[in-house]
Amino acid sequence: MTAPLRPATLAFRDDGTPYSPAYDDVYHSAAGALAQAQHVFIGGNKLPSRWRGRRLFTILETGFGLGGNFLATWAAWRGDPARPQRLAFVSIEKHPFSAHDLRALHERIVAHATIAPLARALADAWPLPLPGVHRLEFEGGRVTLTIAFGDALELLPKLWLRADAFYLDGFSPAKNPDLWSPPVFKALARLAGKDATLATYTSAGHVRRGLEAAGFLCAKAQGFAGKREMLVGTFAPRWRVRRHEPPLPIDCTERQAVVIGAGLAGCAVTERLVARGWQVTLVDRHARVASETSGNPGAVFHPLLSRDDSVASRISRAGFLYALDRWRVLEAAGHRFERSANGLLHLPADEEEEQTLAEAIATHAFPAEFARMLSAGEAQALAGAALTGLSVRGCFYPQGGSLNPAALAAALCSSAAHASSWRGGVQVDRIVREGVVWNVIDDVGRLVARAPVVIVANAHDAARLARSRHVPTRIVRGQLTRLPPRFATGLRVPVIGDGYAVPLADGLLTGATYEPDDEDAAIRPSGHAENLARLSKLIPSLTNELAAIDPATLAGRVGFRCVTSDRLPMAGQFADERASEMQAASLRGAWPLDLPRAEGLYGAFAFGSRGLVWAALAAELVASQIEGEPWPVERDLAESLDPARYLLRALRHGLADRFA
Hints:
By secondary structure, the chain is an alpha/beta fold. Helix 1 packs across helix 2. The model has no long low-confidence stretch (mean pLDDT 94). It is found in: Cytoplasm.
């Protein structure tokens, strides 16, 4: 179970230096955080000369602290005309400051006019104190900060990236020995790129010996601000120190991709790739984007809470938070998709569910800005007159809400329009690998597009196109019901429970039915009746009025969710199933990284009813894999989304030997 975060305490020594009471140590030398960052970490890693001419340069830091090293590095990147196209900065922080405290600290340590705006941007983007990996983007996405909140001993083995430089900047080895231990050094070696360098303020002998045992060649260098020595080093192992090489970008000369499927999943992937300089062809069987389930007039978004902070909860939290950041960027650029602004109310179905929600919030010490329980009176006051007589406590998600999925898909496509092309009304029959490119063929045998990378994002049809026997998905019919505007009167926020109620400008949206393996696209009165019955339980004050409605007179919409048996989406690179089956005996104990992969073939699909929460994160994960960038979630979570996870299970149980 994920441990709750314990935020840092804002404290200072007599000379004004920020200080940690928990570790009885300072965050930086009295000579200044930025000066220390420049000498020890930027200079110690021979930057900026080492990053010049690179498309991507990745830095891993072991203690974020006040963010001084990140700000100094960002400023150095900004000031270098020969800077890399993209700077990926990854850091871990066990005890993060609040955004408020971070601003107060930056006012003390940041006096330079060129860095002060960067400090404000960092504080403005600072995530809530929630455990796990958070991806922040600056400079139009060209500078990313991937910050992991939690214990480095637990998180370092879960990160997946190829580091070009290491900033080893925890509290001193005497004060925080865990951060300077062999498990940490081994984890760094697992992530080190060719000729990766390191630098650290300390010069302790056991630190040097531990790093050298892990494969780093270390030397002493001139220390900072009166400290005689510090350590620098280079990754130069004399023996094999890891089972797998860290990730590299796909090897292709043309940065072109085809995305099949123009729902939320495909539009999000298109936008994420275009943001990285790719040319994308977006293909769909319909003439317009978001013509299927993503075309629903409204949908809700919120995190998923559980007592044990399950994999599904962690993935949903990561997706929810990342989606919010992406939507803010789109909105700042002028795009609108009817996103509600007053939060979302979750009404438990019974006392057991109410207790589960309350215990999850208390156990994990979630901040009130993320989720909090409300009394029946508070919930009624928040939601409005429509919940008169409410008798149960509610769970409130201040950043949850509803939006128009089709408008969001259009915004994503508009954002990517300068480097993408649209091929609507095209039914893709198959994709065929020819040399280093994929040929996309339509249902009459015509070539639709060619590219070294294909991403299938077309829900239940994705597994067929990928020719995968080990990606089991099924469809679930969902019918929505639209009610006249009078039913939305007085409801101030979307409400969910057993079903949902979303107030729209032209009425109330409710639903949806859940009918596995039902392919009937016709609207059925029975579906409306089922939705009205659930709405009556959710908002009892509407019961009498709803009972007077003839379901056959109502409007609605039918969509088809694509789900997996574990209810988690598919996001990532496909396995080469034929090669895996031929090697079945040797792969019986395989890890995901052991599997042969289908070159240039990725998926983003099976989002079920949580497309708003998962689409952006899945797209970022796929784009990061293609580009060889740090992954935006912990590796164990990414492996829970891996399209090869069912193949891996078959191999482990001896069920994937094609010759058996």
